[in-house]
Every structure is written in structure tokens, then in C-alpha cells.
Amino acid sequence: MRDPIGVILAGGQSRRMGGGDKCLLSLDGTSVLDRVIARLEPQVTRIILNANGAPDRFAQTGLPVVADSIGGFAGPLAGVLAGLDRAAEEGASHIVTVAADTPFFPSSLVSGLGAAAIAQDKPLAMAMTPDPERGFARHPTFGLWPVDLRDNLRAALNEGVSKVILWTEPLGCAKMVFEGFDYDPFFNINTAEDFAEAEAMIKKYGL
User: Fold this and answer.
1) So what's the pLDDT on residue 14?
2) 140-158 residues labelled b (16+ CB within 10 A) or e (exposed)
3) How far is CA 142 from CA 13, 100, 198, 206, in A?
4) pTM (predicted TM-score)
């Protein structure tokens, strides 16, 4: 596998924040999106932003913006497909996706997903963390996706499949467990209270 392209999924509607682009809001003086970019950039060859609506609102990032090709806000899989289609145009073999509202994901995300896919001999890989109640918690928007599955994904979306797990599991999906953190590396920001908690995490852990 060649080094993948990174795709930041920012296509959601941010309903719990009253709409708008929560990833553009400031978190301890830096936008959430800029924090995501800074964490992802060293891990990939280049970055694409998946977002719907006017792309110029992300102009300050300098990133190419690709919209969902499946209408009706079909969920993160639509963003994955948009990233896969763009990556195919650029001759890439894989993409790795991250969520635009999750600024503390591991700096070993891409290498970990790639290693899990190879070790478990699976075409896809998904991030997981230990969970005291369920054993493991899945993080389906943090995944490794081969470009050659994009037509399969397009067909699934056109058939109404919207949940990541429903598409990945039949194909074979490696599980990469990220553990040993003093904080939740996949903490995502959905509410004003989450912003306050994230700022406290930054101060406590030096994130």
C-alpha cells in the first residue's frame, strides 16, 4: 500500500450546534479544523476536505474541497465515496478518513490502520478503543479505505445503505485498537459543553 491520501469528513449538518460549521469554531485559540489538519498532515501524502455547500468558507485552509456525490446528506459513507473518487483521479490506492470534529486522534492513526489491515489480511481497517462496558468502542469515521472498492460503495449507497458497519463488515474490516491514552483520543465535539471539556483536555494533557 502506498502512502494514503487523508480525507477530513466535514459533511455533517452540526444539528447539535445549531447548524453551521462547528469545525471552524475556535478551540483554545485555534480552530478545530486547523487542529485536525495539523494532526493529520504528517501522516499522509496530502489532504482533501469533504464538505457540502459553498467551498469558499474553507478557503483559508488551502485544501481541495469535494462535496458528496450522493444527495440528501447520506452520512459519512457519502463522504468516504467522495474522497475515494477524488483519490482515484489522483492515482492513489487508499484513503484514510478522519472526522472534522475530533481534534485529538492518535498521531499513529494511519500507520496503525495500515498495519492492522496487513496483519489481519483485510481490505479495510477501522479504529477502535477499549470500552469498559462493551469491550471495544468502534470509531467508524476513522478508517482505511481502498480506492478499488469505490464502485462497490457507490452501489451500496444507491441501495440505501448508510451505516458504515453494514458496508464494511461483509467485505472484511480489520480492527485497530488504540490504547494507552490518559484521555479519549477520539473525543468528538458536538455541543457547547463538549467545547468546554475539550479545552480542559488541552490544558490538562498539553494537546
Assistant:
1) 46
2) bbbbbbbbebbeebbebbe
3) 18, 11, 19, 23
4) 0.94
